[in-house]
Specification:
single chain, 189 residues, alpha+beta, four-stranded mixed beta sheet, 42% helix, globular
Length: 189
């Protein structure tokens, strides 16, 4: 999950510069993030520290406040409809753009209607095109054991782009899914 999270944010205009600055500070090549070797424990530990450096992963602060230590991660395929039913985190911006629903389809409707200042469908099209071109990072999603709801941990902007351009989605898409009976204790769930 950590490697996927970092890879998903490395090209982000918001978080990519922070990751690159931390890598440069540590004398590390970006390949440790964009082409990770998951069998090397020392680089896995470094990536955990890197994620902590800008997202407080190990400290369980900010985004990860209340996030459980015990999560079972696996890759699963979701249909396009299931993908677009994933909820945003319970965070101000995602509540705002979705009209309080946390639903990407509603965010897409509001963006297309011009009701989200600073957001446009056109601005999201290049992001959505990456899925069409087979060059998109996996979304990271969590759920409780009953799978009653799926909540995005990483990939909110991509999820919004997919809702704006659902015609770009394949019939099924692989995501990284975390399941924990403690996930409801995460404040953003």
């Amino acid at each position: 999950m950590i490697a996927a999270f970092l890879a998903g944010e490395l090209d982000s205009p918001r978080f990519g510069p922070q990751i690159r600055a931390l890598l440069a500070r540590d004398g590390r090549d970006p390949s440790i993030v964009d082409r990770p070797s998951l069998t090397d424990e020392s680089t896995n530990a470094y990536r955990a520290r890197l994620l902590d450096g800008y997202r407080a992963w190990l400290r369980r602060e900010g985004l990860f406040f209340g996030f459980p230590e015990n999560v079972d991660w696996s890759r699963v395929a979701l249909t396009a409809d299931e993908l677009l039913d994933i909820l945003y985190i319970d965070w101000d911006w995602w509540l705002t753009i979705s009209g309080g629903t946390r639903r990407p389809r509603e965010a897409a409707r509001l963006i297309r209607a011009g009701e989200v200042p600073g957001a446009s469908a056109e601005g999201h099209e290049p992001i959505a095109a990456r899925i069409r071109d087979g060059d998109a990072h996996k979304l990271i999603v969590v759920t409780a054991p009953d799978h009653s709801r799926l909540v995005a941990v990483e990939g909110h902007v991509r999820l919004t782009a997919y809702a704006l351009y659902p015609e770009y989605l394949p019939t099924s898409m692989e995501v990284l899914l975390g399941v924990s009976d403690e996930i409801t204790g995460w404040g953003l769930f």
